[in-house]
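Quick one, T. Sequence first:
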Amino acid sequence: MAEVERVTAELTDFRRRVDELRAARALPSTERLSVLDAALLELQHVVDVILPRLEQVLPAERDNGARRAADEQQLLRALFQRMPYAVALLGPDTVIRRLNFAGTRLFGMRAGYAAGRPVTASLAPEGRAAFRSQVAAVSRNEGDRSLVVRLLPPPDGARREGESLRATMTALRPRGETGTSVLTVFLTGPEALAADRGGRAGRDGTGRTGMPPGLAELTRTTELMDLLDDMTMTLLEAPRDPIAILDRACRVLRGRFADWVTADLVTRGGGPLVRVAAYGGAGPDAPYDGADAYDAYDDEDEAADEAADEAPAPDAPADRHGAASPSGRPDAPAAQDPYGTDALQATLASQLPGDCPVVVEAARAGNAHLQVRPEDLGAFGHDADGVPVLARAGVTSLLCVPLRARSGPVRGVLTLLRTGGRRAFSMAEAGTVDRMARHLGRALRP
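Structure tokens:
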């Protein structure tokens, strides 16, 4: 290692001298002869000294690197073999590629005998199909899986304590092998037994236990179908008014599907977006009435902002805190927490959609946006203090969809936000919202 450092230092000095020689090109031609002699001397030094040292050092470094890699591989192999839990490296067809010592004891077979044989041969028949499906899914890089299986009973038919196993699988691509393998850990003990007593429990993509993966997926699908049915009934019963339609749609989605819901409407004649509904938090369900701002854009004699501020509203609706607002927009009480739910509610209600890049992009390009753990915290705009709304609300998942029929211009934009520990929007949920958006777009057509 010391020799490498010496060679590196010499190369650094050599580069510095070469830079000085290069700068000497600016000297008069009568003074370049000495510079040429110095350059030849430096080249001779490289050939006679530095290159021989490199030829000695590099093979030694390669040998050291290969030796370190071999030592690390030997350590990992020992760790795999000495793990206190049964660990198996499986192929996509559940065939055993490697099995550690604990696995040989658990399945009652030698490692050499187990290699090339499917592990399902040691499992109870009723769990083999589910196990094969989960292994195949993991090998396709569809995420980690976990489920409870049972070993085949011994010849006497008696149940044994270690019969129930929790198999946890993850994808692995070993060096020098083709395809993806599935690293599977078989856990015995109270956890597996408790799960087995509760039924053939599994773990879905959210990490919840106590429900087989198939049943969990069926439950989520049923919930989405119920939501779609409620939205359809709402649209059929809503009056033919764009603001009323979006307000009722937000009521359906708020709480059961998203923590915060906003709806923005394109003004008549293709004008700017206007926030017409904003729901969320734990406050009352009084809607934000955006009719004043929306209708103000129809008056061509006044500027948009002046119309929104000056238009009287004799029957202005009560805001979310019970006080009437002259403009129809909710005014936050002076005593409210500036960082509480009510303040955030007022911020969303008074926000200009044009200040929300993700909303503007959805309206312009007509494309939906699904973001999990949004990296750009300013995608949904900022509050009056310059704080990103996504950061202030603790948003963990965002879904923004344009509202339009199968053809025609975008009529509005619907934005759904999930916060805290709630599960992020899935692709299936995004597909359901996209279908709702088409229905809403059809209902908003003049």
